[in-house]
Amino acid sequence: MRSDGDSWSIVDSVGLTALGVATFRALESSEPDALIRDDFASWFVAAAGEHHFTELLADSSSLQGIPFAGFMGVRTKFFDDFFLSAAASGVRQAVILAAGLDARAYRLDWPPDTTVFEIDQPKVLEFKGKVLAEHEARPKADRRPVAVDLRDDWPAALEAAGFDPTKPVAWSAEGLLPFLPGTAHDALFSRIDELSPPGSRVAIDSFTDSSTLQRFSAMPDKFFGTNPFGDLDVSELFYADERADPPGWLSEHGWSVQGATSLELADKYDRPFPELPEEFDDLSKRLAWVTAVK
Ligand code: SAM
């Protein structure tokens, strides 16, 4: 259940979802044919000491055959490739919206002079910073955490942290949109547009309507008897109110938009697409993986 201005740590409410996806990245990283390598993710899981995800990392057999968790490698690679391609085209500012425990500032080979801004709630970034400092991790870019709520005036906080709105930027919103109320969701895209000079890029995972996501997040429990997030019902944290359709909105505002379905993405990365129950067939065919260039 959500409320205006609610906040969280890494072990409760929306914060716990960041720990969850970090766990799935750690699990993917330990696979022999891993699509991505995130050696930082397991540090966060160990430091948080949260019961369910600590156990899952030690023994992930309960996830066997569940389509959800295995797709995290594909999702991570999609955003990794997006940032590397933006960097190759000369973009030197990256903004990771709702960064959670994303370690791209440490994992990716950014060109020199790249600044990576990470926006998330204060307690999430504080936990992350503490764990990274304990491990003496060194970022591969100029990393700037920006502790602010994305329902508030985050552009002011971003600019105060050194963001330059006259220079092209690559934005990511990964695993974020359904956690925002419609007004903050729509404001997010207006603000991205205002802060993006030509040459800027954005990548999102967009299932557009929250009811679809609610159906999707209920799937593992309903069909496989397991919730990868333990006792947390992620769908209760989503907002289901009206909001703009991001790809359509971006197109209307002069961005050149490309979308891929989950099936296409799995194919691109040579991963077999997981077998979904029939009623979820539509999900695999949605243009959920969106990139756009201004
Ligand atoms: N993008 C990260 C990843 O994929 O690993 C984290 C995704 S996690 C599912 C959702 C993240 O959104 C959490 O880190 C949470 O703190 C952040 N978030 C959600 N709503 C937010 C808000 N209003 N302000 C700041 N951060 C928010």
What are the main properties of this structure?
alpha/beta, 294 residues, 13 helices, Rossmann fold, 7-stranded mixed β-sheet, binds S-adenosylmethionine
How would you describe what is shown here?
There is one protein chain. The longest helix is centred in the first third of the chain and has 17 residues, at 13-29. 40% of the residues are buried. The protein has 13 helices and seven strands. The chain has helices spanning 13-29, 41-48, 51-58, 67-70, 72-88, 104-107, 122-134, 154-160, 182-194, 210-224, 246-252, 262-268, 281-284; strands at residues 93-97, 115-120, 142-147, 170-173, 201-205, 256-260, 289-293. The model has no long low-confidence stretch (mean pLDDT 92). α1 (13-29) crosses α2 and α1 packs parallel to α3. The chain has a single domain (70-293), classed as 3-Layer(aba) Sandwich (Rossmann fold). By secondary structure, it is α/β, with parallel strands linked by helices. Residues 14-15, 17-18, 21, 98-102, 120-121, 124, 149-151, 174-176, 179-180 line the site of S-adenosylmethionine.
